[in-house]
């Protein structure tokens, strides 16, 4: 493990990029998921079908294939992205499809009586959604969203195939340098585990805070 300690700063840099990719992808995926969820719930027939098709494609194909298409396939048509951009774009599009189903289910779990009561008080459709439906839906969506978030944290290891120097890629570079594998693989496994525990703790705190009113 002496080699791990000697190269800890390099591994931590890889962990930083893993967290960066995860957070940015989650942010854009979250926004995309809300758009898809409302498109399926309140959109016209054409909009609903487009959203359903998108979700079906991205949930039904491996994320590794999606990364390959975006980074290696799109350049055939003159569309090029840098490794980091391609990684974030791939993960955002994928996580948006999965989260949209979580959000849609959470919104549907809110009783229709809540909407009727809000409308009877004079709230607009937007005010009803923002002030009544979404706060209650968020409480339901947090646990599955947390599982999806942690899953994506681990899936960032797949972006190493497009030469993004995240945590797994840093370990691979060190293994190629020292010709020894186990200490570095153990080190990054521990780092992924610690980050997962941290996110689980934070999401649990958020869930408890949202549940106080209930």
Structural write-up:
This protein has 214 residues and is an all-alpha fold. It has 9 helices and no strands. It has helices at residues 2-6, 8-42, 45-60, 63-73, 83-108, 112-120, 125-155, 167-178, 182-211. Helix 2 crosses helix 5, helix 5 (83-108) crosses helix 7 (125-155) and helix 7 (125-155) runs antiparallel to helix 9 (182-211). The N and C termini lie far apart (49 Å). The mean pLDDT is 87.
Strand and helix layout:
Blueprint: H1 2-6, H2 8-42, H3 45-60, H4 63-73, H5 83-108, H6 112-120, H7 125-155, H8 167-178, H9 182-211
Helix pairs in contact: 2-3, 2-5, 2-8, 3-5, 4-5, 5-7, 6-7, 7-9
How would you summarize what this structure contains?
By secondary structure, the chain is an all-alpha fold. The chain is built from nine helices and no strands. The chain has helices at 2-6, 8-42, 45-60, 63-73, 83-108, 112-120, 125-155, 167-178, 182-211.
| Beta-strand segment tally | 0
Total DSSP helices: 9
Query: How far is the N terminus from the C terminus?
Result: 49 Å
Secondary-structure-based class equals mainly alpha
Largest sheet: none
Overall form? flat
Q: Which key phrases capture this entry?
A:
214 residues, mainly alpha, transmembrane, transmembrane helix
């Amino acid at each position: 493990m002496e080699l791990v300690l000697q190269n800890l700063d390099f591994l931590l840099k890889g962990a930083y990029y893993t967290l960066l990719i995860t957070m940015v992808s989650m942010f854009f995926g979250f926004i995309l998921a809300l758009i898809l969820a409302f498109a399926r719930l309140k959109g016209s027939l054409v909009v609903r079908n487009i959203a359903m098709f998108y979700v079906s494609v991205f949930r039904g194909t491996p994320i590794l294939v999606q990364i390959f298409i975006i980074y290696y396939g799109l350049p055939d048509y003159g569309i090029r992205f840098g490794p980091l951009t391609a990684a974030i774009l791939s993960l955002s599009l994928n996580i948006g499809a999965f989260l949209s189903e979580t959000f849609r289910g959470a919104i549907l779990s809110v009783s229709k009586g809540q909407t009727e009561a809000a409308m009877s008080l004079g709230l607009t459709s937007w005010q009803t959604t923002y002030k009544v439906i979404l706060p209650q839906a968020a409480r339901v969506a947090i646990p599955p969203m947390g599982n999806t978030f942690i899953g994506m944290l681990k899936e960032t290891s797949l972006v190493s195939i497009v030469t993004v120097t995240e945590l797994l890629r840093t370990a691979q570079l060190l293994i190629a340098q020292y010709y020894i594998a186990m200490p570095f693989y153990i080190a990054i496994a521990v780092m992924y585990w610690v980050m997962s525990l941290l996110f689980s703790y934070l999401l649990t705190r958020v869930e408890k805070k949202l549940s106080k009113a209930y």
